[in-house]
Amino acid sequence: MKYFSRKNLIILGAFLLLAVILTGCQPTEVIKEVKVTVVVEPTAVPPTPTEEPADQTAYHVAWESGPHSTYDLGHGPNDWCARCHSPQNWNPEATIGRPPNCVSCKFPGKDIVEGDGNVLIPEEEWKAVPCETCHIMEDGIAGENAWLNPIAMEYVSVSNTTELCEKCHVTTTGNAFGSGVEHKITLGGSAHLNYGGFIDEETPPTFCTDCHDPHTTEPLGCVDCHAEDIEQPEHAFGAYASMRDTVTCMACHDASGADVGPHPDEDIDLWVTTLTEMGRSGPTTSAIVSHSIVYEVACDRCHYVDNEWELTVRTADGSIPDPDAEAPAGPPGS
Q: I want to staple 250 with a disulfide (CB 3.0 to 4.6 A). Which of 70, 135, 218, 290 is the partner?
């Protein structure tokens, strides 16, 4: 066994003593709080304020005055109309126990919705056509246009407002009133045509909302865009001037082939375009709004020889025919 010498022990002790001294001499960490003042220079552009949600009260008021805010009692298994005109949260795919028959649609005197399997919705919860049917709602604010499929309850994107309208207005008759689901208003490039094509100086409507307020559905009148035309000589003088208050613009300028004649309501002294439909109780004639309009007018459409209304006989251009000339009786093409 090897022993340390006295000299080695002294050296080792000296190193240990030095290590202890150095450890004790380490500086103690001191944390001092320093106050710093930050100077923010003013900028020329003020900060952007937080935008408040748009006030949509006017839209709600307009909507409540329009036909889309109402509803009908959805009796029986015929559920197509009820998808819009009964509670929007009603399930149109629920199983109905009673088979369809002639009186399935309406039960006179009934004031409740009947249908085995349907969840009955209290009337106060009926929604008619609410904002969310046509808009994606964000925090109670109507945003982007989209159609809410009432069966899947999922939004379907649309490219424009006309495509949105056509989700419900699905037929192509172009009449303002009709049976079933004949709600569609189709311009189809036919509005504002003359005999030679589009009128260059006129901008034809592109979407339903160009002429119809989407919330009240109130349409523009012809004179809203054609006030100057009404003052032209062909409208302002002679026989035409006397017709301005008794004949609608469409009755003369219609190109759809609709019938033209007195308003079906005898209390309304107005010459209009009409449509006759055959219903369960027989034919029904209604005044309609024609959306197929041409500039050129054929007066002999109504003012033909031996016409049933005893109107003055006129040629196509509105002139009085030669009394010695023979003219065929009946409307043109009959």
A: 290
